[in-house]
Amino acid sequence: MTSTASDDPDAPKTPTTKRATKSATTGATTGGSADDAAAGSGRVTAAQAMRGAAVQLAELLGNNPDSVSALRPTQDGWTADVEVAELIRVPDTMTVMATYRVTLDVRGQLLGYERVRRYARGQLDRER
């Protein structure tokens, strides 16, 4: 009969290490040293929320986001504003851009999105 490390009381004990895993959907990393606090509470970090918002919105729209221009924590998760080029034009300053507001839960999963603004890439916001 063969014995395994758990069967043999004289076998040396090897410490088990927690390996970091990456979610295919959100790009969020769980486990590992930097993410222990967030992973313990089940809430993703701000960086993970930003990446998750961009990746998941890209999957739904079929366009790669240009940037995440805002990220706000909420009681139920995160809200992010993601900038996306909707219509590519020449010159580039005439490309039609859109801002999408993305809502994520505490684990970084997309709950919903809406387009809140359309504008030309070269357009500056007016002072209020």
Descriptive overview:
This protein is of the alpha+beta class and 128 residues long. 17% of the residues lie in helices and 36% in strands. It has two helices and six strands, in the order ββααββββ. The strands form two sheets. A four-stranded antiparallel β-sheet has the order 3-4-5-6. A two-stranded antiparallel sheet has the order 1-2. β1 and β2 form a beta hairpin. The relative contact order is 0.15.
Oligomerization: single chain
Q: Can you count the beta strands? A: 6
Major sheet: arrangement of strands: 3-4-5-6
Distance between the termini: 80 Å
List the helices and strands and how they pair.
Elements: E1 21-22, E2 29-30, H1 36-41, H2 46-61, E3 65-74, E4 77-87, E5 96-105, E6 110-120
Would you kindly provide a brief summary of this structure?
This protein is of the alpha+beta class and 128 residues long.
